[in-house]
User: Fold this.
Amino acid sequence: MTKHPDLPKYIYPTIDMHVHPPPDDARTEAMLAAAQRAGITRVILCDLGHGEWREYPPVGEVRRANERVYGMIARHPGVVYGLVYVNPNHAETLDMLEEGLAQEGVLGIKLWVSCRDERGRLDPVYPVLELAQARGAPVLVHALERTGGNMRGELSATDIASLARRYPQASIAMAHLGGKWQRGVRVVRACPNVY
Assistant:
């Protein structure tokens, strides 16, 4: 991507760290062109699967989503980077993370809304954060303070704060703090490893 001539130089490089690829691969070029027009020089992708985004996607769907990201990185080196996406409830999660983090251009991990087990516990996320902390891989975590209550596997700011205290060397990027966002910001304010 080239720099946009009308934007000030101090904004470069501008990175959009939370991009989902378009459902149709043919629209990727248009997405990247739009990013360039906005002054975005790098995008970090995470795919949650084609079609409906399931709360608890099966392993095959997660693998296909990651393969799609790896392919986009290969086709757009230096512009497109990626996050390896996992449903931490699968036994294959740590292997998928190791495989994904070894891919050229993969910078970290993405957790969406499948973060709780069938009893509502955060146990599936602990090995992911342990690996992230050990490897120095940042984790982008979908988190909300929904006014109507969160989805069953979705994390709240309180959950993020708890994880941040449990894994103080892990870098956690908390995405989508909508809804009761003021409360969410207050909850994580004392966690220096939450961004």
